[in-house]
Specification:
This protein is about 45% helix and about 15% strand. By secondary structure, it is α/β, with parallel strands linked by helices. The protein has two domains: about 5-200, 2-enoyl-CoA Hydratase, Chain A, domain 1 (Alpha-Beta Complex); about 205-250. Strand 1 and strand 2 form a beta hairpin. Helix 1 (about 30-45) runs parallel beside helix 3 and helix 5 (about 145-150) packs across helix 6. About 35% of the residues are buried. The structure holds coenzyme A. Coenzyme A binds near residues 109 and 132.
Amino acid sequence: MYKNILIESADNICTISINREAKLNALNIATLAEIKDAIEHGNQDKDIYAFILTGKGVKAFAAGADISEFANFSVAEATKMSADGHAVMNAIENSVKPVIAAVNGFSLGGGCELAMACHIRIASSNAKFGQPEVNLGVPPGYGGTQRLVQLVGKGKALEMLMTADAIDANTALSLGLVNQVVEQADLLATCHKLATKISRKSPLAIQNVINCVNDSFSEGKDGFNTEIEVFGKAFGTLDFKEGTDAFLNKRRANFRD
Ligand code: COA
């Protein structure tokens, strides 16, 4: 049903692969809409516990928004493109199930913004990260000026945003832009293992963690207050009963049955 992405589900993990390898997985508008749709459907699917987002091939996660598509856009079209792109990134960031970016190569412009919208980023050693938009006469348009600051701090973010220089995977690791660097051959297995580990925790508690952390960065929200609220509410859930009972009875918690 999708034209630009591939969906594979195994062991309750849904892997979404951008499937435009010949264009280095450049993110045209249709691709972004499909990613959003896949995340939204997966969030409704009780058999899906987590997502891995990656790009097809060995060269690129996504080399940015599709320049050939937007080159002749009007101001109105570009504004809509950016707003729609933000909605895609927000859908990923606010997914109630964890989204792990398996960054398998170039992660530039919109590709870097896509990776940054995910909850966790694992990079292959050949990955490169950058926001080269100023080379094209525009600032980033899919949240890059905000999420890069959140992840690496204002000074480094401004340097990357203003120089357009790409950084390698180990530099991204040292800046906190990625969580781990692995060899490309191990990338998907590493992400799968991580997704499985998180999936064994309380799904409701994971959802609450995502909400609290996101509220820390959301206009008009207070993450501390959200935490008080969801902590209290958690005590009325079966997940809490299962987790505490498992601890007290020295057994492994099972939150899924
Ligand atoms: N949008 C549209 N097409 C893109 C693209 C993008 N962001 N990035 C790569 N492609 C296309 C190329 O046009 C080329 O298509 P073609 O074979 O039909 O000519 C194909 O993908 C392969 O890219 P190519 O440039 O030949 O690969 P490379 O290994 O020489 O260079 C990059 C790789 C990533 C350095 C280079 O493709 C690049 O600079 N891409 C644009 C990065 C960018 O500015 N992103 C931000 C956009 S807002």
